Amino acid sequence: MRRAIIPAAAALFVSLVPAPAALARPPVKVPVAEGYGGAVATVDLDASKAAISVLRRGGNAMDAAVAAGAVLGVTEPYSSGLAGGGFMVYYDARQRKVFTIDGRETAPRAMTSTSLEGIPFDEGVTSGLSAGVPGTVATWDLALRRFGTMSLGQALQPAIEVASKGFVVDQTFYDQTAANAARFKDISSTAKLYLPNGAPPPVGSVFRNPELADTYRELGRRGPGWLYGGQLGKEIVATVKNPPVTPGSTRNVRPGLMELSDLRAYRALLREPTKISYNGMDVYGMAPPSSGGSTVGEALNILEALPRVGLHEYLEASRLAFADRGKYVGDIPGVPLEELLSDGFAKERACLVGDTALTSPVAPGSPDGSYEPCAEPTGTATPVAQEGPETTHLVVADRWGNVIAYNLTIESTGGNGIVVPGRGVLLNNELTDFTFGPAPGDPNLPGPGKRPRSSMAPTLVFDGGRPVLAAGSPGGSTIITTVLQILVNRYEFGMSLPEALAAPRATQRNTAQTQAEQAFLDKYRAELEAKGHSFALNPEIGAATALEFLGRSRIQAVAEPTRRGGGSAMVVSPGR
């Protein structure tokens, strides 16, 4: 047995929002909960309350996930919303099968491989050009029709209530608004909503979004066609093509390429999940255009091929898997997914892991089905593209054993910064996840109808054919390393799930320096620098949510204790 090296420390719904005073203390979130009958973990108390309300009234995990996701579009609007996209990994207990839904945004048909060339990244973000065709509403619709028990209108009710009554502004919401204030003020509709009186809403104030409440209400009444070809879609296209720039602003806000026909053509897709065997368990993830399942899976395979696992090996496995991600994974035909996740390829890559750190950028391997005991890579390394750090993730389990891990996003914090006038919803900037180019042969160059490569990694772990753990995180390309490190903490280092989430993080993505949180540097820097690792500070990596089945129908839901203001874990019944 391999020896693990353990680190040194290891209206159908009840009211969701009380009538607040003029200034109120943000509600207290509990990061760990244990109990029965179902569980949820999100970054937000209102979203978790919505999911628990659905579960208590007989809804299943998918109903609860959609309801929570819609509430996050209100309370976490800079990370998610109906104009964004995402990925679901769902276990259907009745069918005993894992399904995934690809709700990733798509590029307009008019976009080409050179559409983003020469544009500064920041200017690309705050523009109509960055807005992908939204996938979230199509995801909710497909998910509820295929796996849920509620209508879309019913699932949206908690979000309508929160948007109408408001929520108490916490420090995270204030800080995110303040960080975006300069560009928000240059978009008239965004400034009107998020900079009332010309400034971010203060902590303790109540923030309401009645326009979004009306938008959700109409969406529930009219259905997804209202967006995918109907009036809401027309308004989104008009905003993309003619962004409402504040008069007198000097910001260069480029128009986008989206047409109503792009919305009509959009489909959320059922895809086969990725699957690997790891330490006798099965790990399921999201296939391309997400790189989450392939990269987490490959790194776990590399670790399993090593004689021992410590933090050094964790960083090296991630470095190698990211090299292969950059070369081979994107929304293109012929991604060698089976070979990337094969034991033979993992062993060939694991042979490169020694006692000292590899020098990045490491070249990709050759997942060609012909593997040698120790083959030197011969390909050309691909730099890690910029990705927005925000996104949100939630997990839900119900009393029937259904489980979902769900990432949803609008990309950068605040998306592209453009609120659709009168609708209260921010547009995404997902198309900046494409490689801007020129980069011949890059699998992630933009193209007509193409889905940009994602790092979202909603993950389910099974033991003996039964789900035992669900996890995921926001954080751009650090999502992959966050999920990987949680699994390593839990299954290699023997931490409990709360310990695995709370532990300090480091992220190695085939870059010269490994980014790490201060607590990680304080504990492990000297030990790892002695092995050749070089570090740069990243103040906060990820904001994970997870759950674990403890046996005898007991579930533990876990969110962050402090990152991004801490998360909210809840269970249907704390006791029997």
Structure in words:
There is one protein chain. This protein is an alpha+beta fold and 576 residues long. 32% of the residues lie in helices and 17% in strands. The chain contains 18 helices and 20 strands. Strands 2, 3, 4, 7, 8, 9, 11, 12, 13, 14, 18, 19 and 20 form a 13-stranded antiparallel β-sheet that branches. It has a three-stranded mixed β-sheet with strand order 15-16-17. Strands 1-10 form a two-stranded parallel ribbon. Keywords: Hydrolase, Signal, Transferase, Zymogen. InterPro entries: GGT_bact, GGT_lsub, GGT_ssub_C, Ntn_hydrolases_N. It comes from Nonomuraea composti.
For the biggest sheet, the summary is: 13 strands, antiparallel
Structure classification: alpha+beta
Mean pLDDT: 93
Radius of gyration: 22 Å
Number of helices: 18
**In what range is the share of β-strand residues?**
15-25%
Distance between the termini: 38 Å
Helical amount among residues, as a percent range? 25-40%
Number of strands: 20
Low-confidence stretches: 1-22
Shape: globular
Quick rundown:
The protein has helices at 45-56, 61-75, 121-125, 136-147, 152-155, 157-165, 171-184, 188-194, 210-222, 231-241, 260-265, 292-304, 311-328, 337-340, 343-350, 478-491, 497-502, 518-529; strands spanning 3-4, 32-42, 85-92, 97-103, 167-168, 206-207, 269-271, 274-278, 281-285, 308-309, 392-398, 403-409, 459-463, 466-472, 506-507, 514-516, 535-537, 545-551, 554-559, 568-573. With 576 residues, it is of the alpha+beta class.
